[in-house]
Amino acid sequence: MSALDTAAQVRAGQRCALDVVEESLAAIESRNADLNAVLLVTADAARAAAASIDRRVAAGEPVGPLAGVPLVVKDNTCTRGLPTTCGSRILNGWRPPYDATVVRRLADAGAVIVGKANMDEFAMGSSTENSAFGPTRHPIDPDRVPGGSSGGSAVAVATGMVPVALGSDTGGSIRQPASFCGVVGVKPTYGRVSRLGLVAYASSLDQIGPMATNVADAAAVLEAIAGHDPGDSTSIPEPCPPIGAHLGDGVDGVRVGVVAELMGDGIDPAVAARVLAAAEVLAAAGADVVEVAIPALRSALSAYYIIAPAEASSNLSRFDGVRFGLRVPASTTPEMYERTRSEGFGAEVKRRIMLGTYALSAGYYDAYYATAQKVRTLVLDGFAAAYRDAHVLLSPVAPTTAFRLGENTEDPLTMYLNDVCTIPTNLAGHPAMSVPFGHAEGLPVGVQVLAPALAEIDMFRTAAVLEAGGAE
Question: Which residues contact 214 (CB under 8 A, 6 or more apart)?
C-alpha cells in the first residue's frame, strides 16, 4: 500500500497508526539481518508516536498528510537524543542535542520515524560498502551492492520495510541507489530543503531528498520537508509548490532533451536502451523529444572530485576527538588528534580528506580548486543553454546496473565513474530524480529526469508519465 493511501486510512480511522508501525517494525525484523539496511531501530519511540496519532484521530484533531506513515532517515540526519553515526566509528556514541529541520517537519506531517539507515561513511561512496558497520546488500541479489551512499534507505523502501525514506545527495547518493534498487529517488533544487541538521559532506552540493515506492509518495514527502528555514542560510525563501497536484498534467507539448554526452562511451548499452525506451514513452504521450549537447559535462566529474573533497576537508576537520564521538587517548593533544582521526575515519574518507587538503593547499589552490570552480560555471552555462531548447532532460542515472560486492572497492576511479551521470546536477544545484523504468538482465534500471532550478513540477509530471509507461 502506498504512503498516501496509508495516511488517508489512518486519518479516516480505518487503520490504526500503531498497527501500521508494527507491520513496518516486523518487516525490518524479518529482512534487516540479511541486508543490513537499518542501523538503529527506534521501536519504542515509533510506537509512542503512532499511539499519539491514534489518540488525535479519535479526538477529531488534524494529524497531517503523512499520518502514521513509517519511514527511515539516513544516519547523517540529526535526531535528538538518538545515535547519529554517519556510518563512521568517529561518531561512536554521539547523540545530537537537536532534530534536523526535516525530522521536525516529518513529525509535523504525521510521519513516524522507525529507524536510521545505513550509508557510506560520511556519504562518501557509491555502494554502501564504506560503512563502518558493514555493507548493505542489494534487495534482489545479496551478492551485489545497492548503490550509495543512501543504500540503506533505498533497500528499506525496496523491500517494504518502509514505504518512504530520506536520503542525501551530494553527487548522486539518492538517485544512484534508487536506480540500482528500483525505487523513486529525488534530489530537489539546492536550497529547496533545509540542510540544518544534515551532517555536512560538501556544503555547496549536499541536499536532502525523498526515496519512495512511487512518484506520488515521493512528491508528498518532498512537500512535507521543503520550504524556507531561517536556520539554513542557503534555504530558498519561497514555499514549495503543490507538486502532487500536477502529477496528472501529462507531457503534451513538453520538450524533452536526451543528453548526448551521457549516452555514449562507458554507458552499458542495456541501460542506454532503457533511456531511449523512456524517450519513446514520452513522445507517445505528446512530448517533443530532441537530442541536446552539453559539452561541459565531460569535465564535470573531474571538477566534482576536486570541489567535494575540498569542502569535505574543511567540514570534517571538526571531528578531532575533542567535541564529538570517538577519542583515542594519547600523551599529547596533537597525537590524540592524529590517532583519533586515523582510527576513526575509514580509508575512503581519509582518501578524500587528503585529496581536498591538497587541492586547497598553498601553491595548488589556483591550479585545482579555482579551476574546478570555473568548470562548475561552464556546467551551469551548458545547462542554461540546454534548457533554452528543452523543458526537462533525460539521461541514465548510472552507467550500469548494480555491480557485485567488492568488485570496485580496490579501484577508486571506477567507483567514482558511477557518478558520471548524476554529478552535473549537483554542480548546477538543479533538481533531478531517478524513476524506475524496467530491468536489464534481471536488475532494476532507473531513468534520470533533470529540470532547471525550482522546476520540480515539470520534473515530477514527466516522471509520472514514465512511471505509468515503465513496463518492460
Answer: 2, 184, 467
DSSP letter, residue 369: I
Is the separation of the CB atoms in 139 and 35 below 8 Å?
Answer: yes
Catalytic residues: 74, 149, 173
- 347 vs 327: CA distance, rounded Å: 18
Please provide residue 443's backbone torsions phi and psi, each rounded to the nearest 5 degrees.
Answer: -115, 145
With beta carbons less than 8 A apart as the criterion, state whether 375 and 302 touch. Answer: yes
| Cβ(432)–Cβ(451) below 8 Å | yes
Q: Do residues 424 and 299 make contact, with C-beta atoms less than 8 angstroms apart?
A: no
Residue tagged 571538477 (cell numbers) = 303
Helix (H) / strand (E) element for 379: namely helix 371-389
Nearest to 299 by CA among 241, 228, 381: 381
**Which residues of the chain have a pLDDT value below 70?**
471-472
In the chain, what are the domains?
Answer: 3-246 (3.90.1300.10)
The whole-number pLDDT of residue 471 equals 62
Q: What pLDDT digit, counting tens, does each position of 384-393 carry?
A: 999 999 999 9
Full-model pTM = 0.97
What are the grid coordinates assigned to 391, written together? 523543458
Contacts of 235 (CB under 8 A, 6+ apart): 191, 194, 195, 228, 229
